[in-house]
Every structure is written in C-alpha cells, then in structure tokens.
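Many introductory courses stop at the sequence. We go one step further.
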Amino acid sequence: MVQDTSPKELNEAALPEWVRNLRSADGLFVTDEQQRIVAWTASAEAALGHRAEDVIGRPCYEVIAGTDVTGHPVCRPSCAAVTNAARGRGTASYDVAACTCDGARVWVNNSILVARGEADSGTFLVHLFRPKTEAPAQRRQASQKAPQRLKGAHGARRGGGQPLSRRELETLRMLAAGQTTVEIAEALTISRFTARNHINNLLRKLGARNRIEGLLLATERHLI
C-alpha cells in the first residue's frame, strides 16, 4: 500500500537536478517510486489549475484522480504505470479524465517516460499530458457506426464493435504495454485462466483473430 506523504516530508533539494529543471509546453509533472508528485510545472498548472505548492508531495492519484470512460479509477495506488515501471517496462499512452483544481473533469492524453536515476535517487515517472477536445467515448461511438473495413477470407464482414467491459479495457491496455498473460493475471490479482478469458473475450468483441490484430483494431477505434 502506498503511504500518503505530506509536502513537508518531501526533500525537494535532494531531487536530481534534471527533475527540477524539466520544462514542456505540454502539461508535465514527475512522480517518484511512492507515487508522490515531486515536480509540477507551470504548464501543468495552466492545464489543470493546481498550484505546485498545493500538490508537491501529494500522491498523484489524489491530485489527478483520473478515471476512464466508464468512470472507473485509472489513477490509483500501484496503478498499471507504476507496476510496469517497477518491472522495467513502459506504458502505452492513454486517455484519462483528470480532475482540475475546481473539481471539473478534463480529458487528457497522458504519456509516461520512465527514468531510472542513480541508486540513491530511484525511479521517476515523467507524465506528459495534452488536453483533448472530446471524450474517448464519443470517438468510439462514431467509430463503431462507421462501416467495418476489415473482412474475412471469404469477403464477409467480421464481428466487432461490441463495447468492452471495464476489466477488458484494463486487460487491453496491459496488452498494449507488452505484458504477458501471466503478468496481466498478477497485476489484476486473478488467475491465468481468467486473464486468458478476458483476452479472448476482448479479441472476440473487437473481431480480431489474434492479439496483434486486436491491438491494431483497438488503436483504430481509439480504445488505446
């Protein structure tokens, strides 16, 4: 369990210089291995309204409080991005409804860079996020109404367009991040058999014959 840490307990002076000097036109903030926000740029404040002095040292999942299209929390203790980073893996960019300082929701696309510092500085996650003009659900609905372009061997249109469940969306994002069935089962605290069922179900709903085609179709429909 990630422990909450107040801003006063965070020694900003001990941070690597590159963390303190990061700048970007996109929203940018940095978290440490405990998911505490250790750097919050002016561009992040401009995008979400939170001031650096109000968020430094706080868990990112409390500040961003991001959810997916179903309202399920994406930002949470030991989230997929943190789990992947601990295993030396990256995480595919994803859309999230972030919380602004006044409690409103803003859709952003978030990309994460994993930076491993020296032994005494640990691992940092650099978050780059860009506001979106529409929610992913709107784009997915429009995509599902469009004619299917992919056809089977005999020219018949294959299945697809069925909505994925919350757990299937989580599984899809992990597949996009390169995780195996075993790793997905461990991350979701489920059996390998259940993880394999989630994968098979989401591929069936996407109308895909294999995982690679599933990821291509999911990208086309803006699910990842």
